[in-house]
Design brief:
Elements (H helix, E strand, L loop, with lengths): L2 E11 L4 H4 L6 E2 L4 E7 L1 E2 L2 E2 L3 E7 L5 E8 L5 E7 L5 E4 L3 H7 L15 H12 L8 E5 L11 E9 L10 H21 L13 E7 L12 E2 L5 E5 L9 H15 L8 H5 L12 H22 L18 H6 L5 H4 L3 H12 L30 E2 L6 H5 L21 H11 L5 H11 L7 H5 E2 L24 H4 L4 H11 L11
Helix pairs in contact: 4-5, 5-7, 7-10, 12-13
The structure holds zinc ion.
Zinc ion binds next to α5 and α7.
Length: 514
């Protein structure tokens, strides 16, 4: 006689990562995880083979259930989980394959020069085609522990990665995969709250591989990196170090976001693949500093938003969201305006400047690392001067990456625009909140060779409306019927804007862009 069997349980994570534990100290439900339930019964007094009953996906509480019509004989169960869906895949080790692929590239990473650029580019393109494989983790196996269940509802309760030593629940790699799953799903949900154009690419899932150890790169210089071709994030674990932590995996995920929202170009990948060992000093190419500064800054904003924690920058200074002082940037080898876009720290500071309200209250000449905010009573704004800061939101900064055809930007951000002048110009043209005055002020505030106070560049005298002379007469045009609005679009928008902003530099009167 057939009866209904129901197997249920909850998949969760207990993380000891300091960033996660800061705000999620307890058990964390793992949503969207695939769960495969298999069962077996005794045949002639001997346990038979396990047969899969069904594969289901956990709900937002990490809950799963499998129902099956079967006979009443007692059963043993096996339960496995897989960290894979159409947005995210997590790969375990597969180093044999990597060894084969990288043969013949030995010694290259010791000293990267422009000459090996094509070879490394080729290497990355080749690794793009590697078929890595996801792995089923076993969380229950009643094979060994002579347990059995009679028919009805069997509630296995909580399966806790990192909170149990049973099967793979205590396996350090499985726990990290569960952690990456939890963290990346949190980040995805933040981005899904923004406009569609800012979402992660839904046509190709992001993949994370951990552990990863590239035999051709020395253990001391090897670093986590993100492949711009296949969206695979490689998190290193070798004899010297284990790179897996929340800050690093979110930093790498932000590289993937940037690759998905800017133009991918040759010579980008090889530079970025070695970024881990190149954080100090200035970069030769501003796009490298841009990508690094962006990934670190965006990751810091996200860990603040999701986990309520200010992260440090590569184990050094904490990124509190406050811009850096000129003195700090000088200590990072930024000497003058031309160095700014070669420094990832200066990019981090620039993005923070774009988000900071009341910039005039900040002391960029501070002797500390930060342009700390002063009390408004200690800052004197000259009479009738108007203070204006861009105060963009996080997603408004992300929006500078994508195309804005009506503002004259038909393409996403290109490598050649990843420099101070072009990026600020693009931000100004795309965002109604950024003016030419802001652009000029930001350059001064970032420049360690300058000493101007923020109030002197952020709070400007009002511009007197132009008074017509005594002999003024309305131009002929004004007596003509108005121009049909659609016609004006035919003008070169960008040129019009530039001319407009030069002539009229007050934010209050800046023309509204569409
Ligand atoms: Zn990076």
């Amino acid at each position: 006689m057939q009866v209904t069997w129901k197997v249920e349980g909850r998949i969760s994570l207990k993380s000891n990562d300091s960033t996660i534990a800061n705000v999620f100290p307890g058990m964390l439900p793992l949503a969207g995880v695939q769960v495969k339930v298999s069962a077996r019964e005794k045949i002639l007094g001997v346990w038979g083979p396990f047969n899969s009953w069904d594969t289901v996906t956990t709900n937002s509480d990490g809950y799963f259930e499998v129902k099956k019509e079967k006979d009443k004989s007692d059963r043993q169960f096996k339960i496995e989980v897989l960290f894979k869906d159409n947005t995210l895949k997590i790969y375990p080790e597969n180093d044999g394959l990597w060894n084969t692929i990288t043969e013949g590239f030995t010694d290259m990473f010791g000293q990267i020069t422009d000459k090996v650029e094509d070879a490394v580019e080729q290497l990355l393109e080749q690794t793009s085609r590697i078929a890595y494989d996801v792995k089923w983790f076993k969380i229950l196996d009643e094979d060994k522990d002579d347990k059995k269940h009679s028919h009805g509802t069997i509630d296995f309760g909580y399966f806790i990665f990192g909170g149990s030593s049973k099967q793979d629940l205590g396996d350090s790699i499985a726990v990290k995969h569960a952690t990456a799953w939890f963290v990346y799903k949190k980040v995805f949900s933040v981005f899904n709250g923004f406009g569609k154009t800012l979402h992660f690419d839904d046509k190709k899932p992001v993949a994370l591989k951990y552990p990863h150890d590239n035999p051709i790169i020395g253990d001391n210089t090897e670093a986590a990196y993100s492949d711009p071709y296949n969206y695979i994030i490689f998190i290193i674990r070798n004899k010297k170090s284990d790179w897996f932590n929340v800050d690093t995996i979110v930093h790498e995920l932000m590289h993937i976001w940037a690759y998905q929202h800017c133009e991918k170009e040759k010579a980008m990948a090889w530079q970025l693949a070695i970024h881990g060992s190149t954080h100090s000093g200035l970069q030769k190419k501003s796009f490298v500093a841009f990508h690094e500064g962006f990934a670190e800054w965006a990751s810091n904003r996200l860990t603040r938003l999701i986990f309520g924690k200010d992260s440090d920058i590569y184990g050094g200074t904490t990124d509190t969201g406050v811009p850096f002082s000129r003195r700090f940037l000088k200590g990072k080898n930024v000497k003058n305006e031309s160095d700014i876009d070669k420094s990832e720290y200066a990019w981090i500071s620039l993005f923070n400047i774009l988000m900071t309200p009341d910039l005039h209250l900040h002391n960029f000449n501070s002797s500390t690392d930060y342009a700390a905010a002063m009390s408004s009573s200690s800052v004197t704004v000259p009479s009738r001067h108007v203070c204006s800061s861009p105060a963009l939101t996080f997603d408004e900064i992300l929006s500078v990456f994508i195309e804005h055809e009506s503002d004259g930007y038909k393409k996403v951000l290109t490598k050649n625009e990843m420099n101070l002048d072009d990026f600020l110009e693009r931000a100004k043209d795309i965002s109604d909140k950024v003016t030419q005055d802001h652009v000029e002020a930001i350059k001064i505030l970032l420049d360690p060779s300058k000493t101007d106070s923020a109030v002197s560049v952020i709070c400007l005298p009002p511009k007197a409306p132009r008074k017509p002379g005594e002999d003024w007469k309305p131009p002929k045009d004004l007596q003509q019927p108005p121009v049909i609005s659609g016609r004006r679009r035919a003008d070169n928008k960008k040129e019009t804007d530039k001319a407009g902003s030069r002539a009229n530099r007050r934010p209050a009167t800046k023309s509204k862009k569409t």
